[in-house]
Amino acid sequence: MMSQKNFSCIGGLEKHIKIVKEMVLFPLMYGCVYSKFHLRPPKGLLFYGPPGTGKTLVASALAVECNNSDRKVSFISRKGSDCLSKYVGESEQQLQKVFTLAQQSKPCIIFFDEVDGLAPARTSRQDFVHASIVSTLLALMDGLDSNSEIIVIGATNRLDAIDPALRRPGRFDRELYFPLPCYTARKDILSVQVKNWKQKPAVKFIAYLASKTVGYCGSDLQALCAEAVMSCVRRHYPQIYTCKTKHQINERALKVEKQDFIKAQESIVPASHRLSVVPIKCLSPKMYPLLQDTLYTILTVLQEICPPEMMASENSDTEIRSSTMKCPRLLLHGDDDCHTRHLAPALLHNLEHLPCHVLDVTALFEETGRAAEETIIQKVKTARHTLPSLLYVPDILAWWDLVGEAARVVFTSLMKGLDRSVHMLFLSTIHCSADIIPVEILELFDVHQNEMIEISPPKPVERLAYFQQIFTKVHGKSDNISTRSSYVNFIQVLGPTRFKTEPKRLKEQEVEIIAAPVTRRRAEGKTRMKLSAVQTTSSGHTANTRNSLKRVHSTSGERISSKRHRPSGDSRLTSIESLTEAQVQDLLDRAVNYTDGWTCHQLETLYASLERVLGNSHGDPFISVADCLERFRQNQRSRNNDN
Ligand code: ADP
After folding, report:
1. pTM exceeds 0.85, yes or no
2. Which domains does the chain have, with CATH numbers?
């Protein structure tokens, strides 16, 4: 039995609904128009994509719409497994019955959910029973003529598992991919899920929640909302768990708060995370000063090399400067691994609207007995099916020497075969300098077409901004608004949906600031300062920073004191507070001078040690920090000498 959900109960799938209406509903409702213009509606439509992305939901909403339309359209729904029987020949009979019923009640839509169970790919290893069912289904679909007023829809999570013969023209001749929802789609789905609540969460909070639920499919978001409601009930009426009699609950008083959603999120593992882990992550506030300019550069290059339809920006009218005949591709290289750990995940976050397929060591070796070349072919095939898409190959050297010659040749020839017409972004990272990249990999990327970007060690100004964060808490050294503004402007230029930043633990008001026009943000000096603080400090100290900033700025935003409020119990602040501004400047100068040419990883290690030293309230903080810096410098020197 299907729930009565119509198209208005579906969020983020407007394009899919439009296609389904045009391809399925309209040919059945307005058949005369199609026949007059000799248009051939498809006989079959295949929905595919990860579980919980709304395939069954769209089909069931279609059934409801069919019922509501003036010209009644019948809808027959069967699960793949329902048609299977243990008795020889009975499954085929079941299928026959479904098609006969459809003939009798046409116009009709037949929906086969989990069609991979019904018509798995026929292989030499497969049993005879399945092969016979597949043949019957093929014959029945072939028997439908273009005016039969019967359309078959199949849904599957595993496109590669269904028999390829079913995907030939005249059978399931159209395929519709249901991706994991992107930020905007998640916002829409969440809005749909809470639309009937008496006290709905604020729109800004929905936006915040959408930014925090990367990798969640529609059913995960539904589960999140349901769990948040339960958390709210638990909070208000803990007694119902122990009380034997029915407790009177005043549902009007129940308001699902932010804390309920946060609690709910802790207990939910998104389906996509259970299947595979795509390393999508926005740039952390701490790494922002170090990597924001590099990220900006890469995003600009991507804008130049990718066709506009691959970019989600509403105003993607930038000219494509690349004249390459190959599909868009980009290799981030350099001795540091910050491109794999920080930059590429941030890029994936910004390109979240593209279905991402990851080809890494885990993917290559996760299935025992499966050859690496088989996995490579499968990955590229799947990525090609979900165009426009993104094929992410992180840390390519990690597996290059582990796989055999055959896998390497398969990989390079597949990549070379991807031409300009294939809207697939091939993004890769490699931990070495250009001169030692294996030649087969080098041949895939054209340095003259901007397809290779070397990630150099952070510049002094970036290191200064980075280390300033440590001392920001007390001495208000964070004046990064100007350095940050370029990125903020860039977000505006390219559209907020495309290049977004997502500082940790944003408050609702701060989410709004990010989406607000730059001009408005400029006018809001006070709030901008607050945003800057969130971005420049590590998330763990955000609350403290806010307290501190409150003291420094009056309500009009003027600076009134260079001394900061000290929240009780924070030994690190106690320790920093005893430093004079001159001492802080001295330590910053040392930190910047000592770390010339250091990789992000080394800088992060030093940063963590400095934080630890400052957290320890014993002794003179100036001497402790200076000692720590000196120790690191000596270590680095001896390492350089060893090399
Ligand atoms: P699939 O068939 O793709 O595995 P379903 O269509 O069964 O997934 O989705 C399961 C549930 O998740 C739906 O009943 C619905 O409540 C929720 N859901 C999934 N996608 C959406 C969406 N786009 N909008 C609203 N709810 C959704």
Report:
1. no
2. 7-177 (3.40.50.300), 183-275 (1.10.8.60), 288-454 (3.40.50.300), 459-565 (no CATH), 567-643 (no CATH)
